[in-house]
Design a protein that fits this description.
This protein is of the alpha+beta class. It has helices spanning about 55-65, 65-70, 85-90; strands at about 5, 5-10, 20-25, 30-40, 40-50. The longest helix has 9 residues, at about 85-90.
Length: about 90
């Protein structure tokens, strides 16, 4: 699993209870899905985000986030976020 600012992030299978949050964007903002669980004394989170391609550089500058760099690295991005794409992606969460 990935590294966090405080150590290794536990795999989802290692988290006995998970809490989920889903925020679907209205038009051109960020959509997000987050799973959070506790292992021992530490909380672990797994996050997925979607953002439309249109105006990506402006959004990256305004939010101080590397959205445009992620897109160049191959993170899929289009002009809109389709709920079906989010649904299919969530089916792959392990």
């Amino acid at each position: 699993m990935g590294e966090s600012c405080h150590g290794q992030v536990a795999a989802l299978a290692e988290l006995p209870v998970l809490y989920a949050g889903l925020d679907l964007s209205a038009v051109n903002d960020l959509s997000a899905f987050v799973l959070v669980g506790k292992k021992g004394e530490n909380w672990h989170s797994h996050c997925r985000f979607w953002l439309p391609q249109d105006g990506l550089a402006d959004k990256a500058a305004a939010n101080h986030a590397p959205y445009d760099a992620w897109a160049r690295q191959g993170v899929r991005s289009e002009n809109l976020i389709r709920v079906d794409d989010v649904t299919e992606s969530l089916k792959l969460v392990e």
